[in-house]
Automatic annotation (TrEMBL):
Start and end residues of each Potassium channel domain: 107-165
Record-annotated membrane-spanning stretches: 40-61, 115-131, 143-168, 196-215, 227-251
PANTHER family named in the record: FI03418P (PTHR11003:SF334), POTASSIUM CHANNEL, SUBFAMILY K (PTHR11003)
Listed name of the protein: Potassium channel subfamily K member 10
Length: 314
């Protein structure tokens, strides 16, 4: 009787499985050790993945339509320059109606990179630029793809801003631990002021980098580039928008904490109805004063003022 031989296990498959398991374990350890970095990178990748997917979709819907328009524009221009007949005026009118169409297919506005830019502007609700879908499929994709993209972008902006605030706070808190000699109020005011200053400087540096890039690539002046960066930073570019949103949020928190509370206290003090209520409360309690006994768990004690030494506990 022959012994049945056991099937051999493929050693390369075992090695591949072990390496994939090790990679997953390392990634999990990295996410546990650096949760903020992992969160920031994840949401940033989500933004770019959504933009690239949208770029492929819109490029598929709009690229060939604009390519045909470019071909028609070139054909009309050739007909006008080579023939002078009675249809020349009609062709000229048609040519002028295509003035917004690029002169060459290399400038097609619906290539994947430019379509991804359109996805960014749609998801950020700005609609920057003059590019818009002309086909029915492209317009339908704006509706079907735009709504969930706007929601995801909002979540991404919020999470990126949260990570940036947390990192800034931790950096300042670690520095404050080495300076224990200051008073608590002074430390808190200094902490908030430094946080807003760092965010403001980050916004300026971000805008300056963009202005220098536009100066080198497009030949714009630094002033024009700074103005352009300021406009689109407030409404489009995700990192700049996150910085501006965090900076505005810090300013709002500081304003609420330092001024709104004081105004509320002042309003309560100057409110005649509140003062009348306090006066009525004092008059009604002229013979009894209600106190809380810390020993009895917060039960009220009513102390009779006439005679002063008697007390009834409820």
């Amino acid at each position: 009787m022959e012994a049945t031989s056991s099937p051999l296990i493929d050693e390369p498959s075992i090695t591949l499985t072990q390496s994939s398991n090790n990679s997953c374990c390392n990634l999990k350890k990295f996410r546990q050790r650096y949760p903020l970095v992992s969160k920031f990178v994840t949401w940033t990748l989500v933004l770019f993945v959504i933009a690239e997917i949208g770029g492929v979709v819109f490029s598929y819907c709009e690229y060939w339509h604009e390519k045909n328009q470019i071909k028609l524009k070139k054909q009309l221009y050739a007909n006008i320059t080579t023939s002078l007949n009675e249809t020349m005026s009609e062709q000229l009118d048609l040519l002028l109606s295509l003035s917004s169409v690029p002169d060459d297919n290399s400038d097609n506005r619906w290539r994947i990179k430019r379509a991804a830019f359109f996805t960014f502007t749609t998801a950020s609700t700005i609609g920057y630029g003059f590019t818009a879908p002309k086909t029915t499929a492209g317009r339908l994709c704006v509706f079907l793809y735009g709504l969930p993209a706007i929601v995801i972008y909002g979540l991404a902006f919020y999470n990126i801003g949260t990570v940036m605030v947390t990192l800034t706070d931790k950096r300042l808190q670690n520095k404050d631990k080495r300076q224990r000699s200051f008073r608590l109020i002074r430390e808190r005011c200094s902490f908030e002021a430094r946080r807003m200053l760092l965010l403001f400087l980050a916004i300026v540096v971000f805008m300056l980098i963009g202005a220098i890039s536009l100066h080198s690539k497009e030949g714009w002046s630094i002033g024009t580039g700074m103005y352009f960066m300021w406009v689109i930073t407030n409404v489009f570019i995700y990192l700049g928008l996150a910085l501006v949103a965090v900076f505005i949020g810090c300013c709002q928190d500081w304003f609420k904490e330092h001024y709104l509370k004081k105004w509320q206290v002042q309003d309560n003090t100057n409110d005649p109805s509140q003062s009348q209520k306090n006066a009525n409360g004092l008059n009604s309690d002229s013979s009894h004063a209600q106190k809380l006994d810390p020993v009895s768990g917060g039960h009220p004690i009513f102390v009779h003022r006439d005679p002063p030494d008697t007390a009834v506990i409820n």
